[in-house]
Amino acid sequence: MSVLEARGLSFEAGGRRLVAGASFRLAPGTLTMLIGPNGSGKSSLLRLALGLLPPSAGSATIDGAEVRSLSPAARARKVAYLPQTRPLAWPVPVRDVIALGRFAHGVAPGRLAADDARAVARAIAACRLAGLEDRAADTLSGGELARVHLARALAAEAPLLVADEPVAALDPLYQHEVAALFARAARAGHGVLTVMHDLALAARYADRLLWMKDGAIVADGTVEDTMTPARLADVFGVAARIDRSADGLALAVTGPA
Ligand SMILES: Nc1ncnc2c1ncn2[C@@H]1O[C@H](COP(=O)(O)OP(=O)(O)OP(=O)(O)O)[C@@H](O)[C@H]1O
Fold first, then answer.
1. Range of the domain at 43
2. pTM of the model
3. ABC transporter domain: from which residue to which, for each copy (predicted)?
4. Ligand 1 centre distance from Cα of residue 94 (Å)
5. 220 C-beta neighbours (distance < 10 Å), count
6. How does pLDDT run across 91-145, given as a tens digit for each residue?
7. How far away, in angstroms, is 43 Cα from ligand 1 center?
8. Count of domains in the chain?
9. CA–CA distance from 194 to each of 8, 107, 191 (Å)?
10. Fewer beta carbons under 10 A from the terminal one: N or C of the chain?
11. Residue nearest to ligand 1 atom 26, measured at CA
12. Is the ipTM of this complex over 0.90?
C-alpha cells in the first residue's frame, strides 16, 4: 500500500499565491475529500501533489520518493489521476478509452493481456458501463463520458486514486454510486482523494475532509470534527443546518450566510 505526502506545497502564478503551504497525507484505507470554494486552489493542489506542477516551495512524495523524480509510468503505477477537464474529441471505442488506464502496465489498447482485460472489465462493471463498451466515446452523454473517464482511472488499479470533481456531470443516483464506489475502494485498502463540491455527499461518505480557502488548508479532520455551521460560513459563505442521522451527518445548505 502506498502513501502520498504533501509538505508545505506552495504555488504562484500571475503574481498571485494560488496554493500556500499546503500539507496533507493520503494514507491507505481512507476516503479523503478536498472541499473549498471555486478558485480556492484545489485543482492546483492536486496537480502539485502529483508532480504535474512545479511547486515554488514544499515537496510531495509517494512512498518516500519525490513525485517529480518518478517517470510518468512509475507514477501511474502508484496513483491513478482523474483530472477535472477531460477532453475527448475522437470516435474511440469506450473499451479502448478505459484500456488507456492500463498504460502504466505497458499496455496498448487492442493488445490486452488477460490481467489487463480483467481489470478493464472490473472497471466497466464498477461504473455500470456494460453495453456501452463498443460505442464511440464521442457519442456518449456528458454523464456517460464522465463514468468512462472514471473507469479509465479505476482500471489502473493503482493503490492511490486522485480525482478532481468526478461526480460533477452525474445525476443524483450516479453521484451516490460513485461516492459509494470510492468508499468501497478505501475500505479495500486504497487511498482515495477526491475534490467534491457536493457538501451533502462529502458529509455522507468522506472519512476525512480537507477544507481549502484562499490557497490554504484551513482544516483537516473527520466530518464529525470539522463540519460545523461556523466553518461552512467561514469557508463557503453559506448558512447550513447539520443534523445527525443514523447514516451520519445530514447537511442542508439554506442560503448565503
Ligand atoms: N497558470 C495560472 N495562472 C494564473 N492563475 C491561475 C493559473 N492556474 C490557476 N490559476 C488561478 O488560481 C486559482 C485556483 O485555481 P484552481 O483551479 O486550483 O481552483 P479550484 O479550487 O480547483 O477551483 P474550481 O472549484 O473552480 O475548480 C483560480 O483563481 C485560477 O484562476
1. 4-256
2. 0.93
3. 4-239
4. 30
5. 18
6. 889 999 999 888 877 777 667 889 999 999 999 998 899 999 999 998 998 888 8
7. 7
8. 1
9. 19, 26, 10
10. N
11. 38
12. yes
User: How far apart (Å, rounded) are the C-alpha atoms in residues 219 and 209?
Assistant: 8
Number of the ligand 1 atom closest to the C-alpha atom of 14: 4
CB half-sphere exposure, 38, CA atoms < 13 A: 0
Please provide the size of the chain in residues.
257
Q: Which long-range contacts (CB under 8 A, 24 or more apart) does 207-210 make?
A: 207/30, 207/31, 207/32, 208/30, 208/31, 208/32, 208/33, 209/32, 209/33, 209/34, 209/35, 210/24, 210/32, 210/33, 210/34, 210/35
Q: Which of 18, 38, 84, 199 to mutate to test the pocket of ligand 1 (most atoms within 8 A of CB)?
A: 18
3-state secondary structure the chain: CCCEEEEEEEEEECCEEEEEEEEEEECCCEEEEEECCCCCCHHHHHHHHCCCCCCCEEEEEECCEEHHHCCHHHHHHHEEEECCCCCCCCCCEHHHHHHHHHHHHCCCCCCCCHHHHHHHHHHHHHCCCCCCCCCEHHHCCHHHHHHHHHHHHHHCCCCEEEECCCCCCCCHHHHHHHHHHHHHHHHCCCEEEEECCCHHHHHHHCCEEEEEECCEEEEEECHHHHCCHHHHHHHHCEEEEEEEECCEEEEEEEEEC
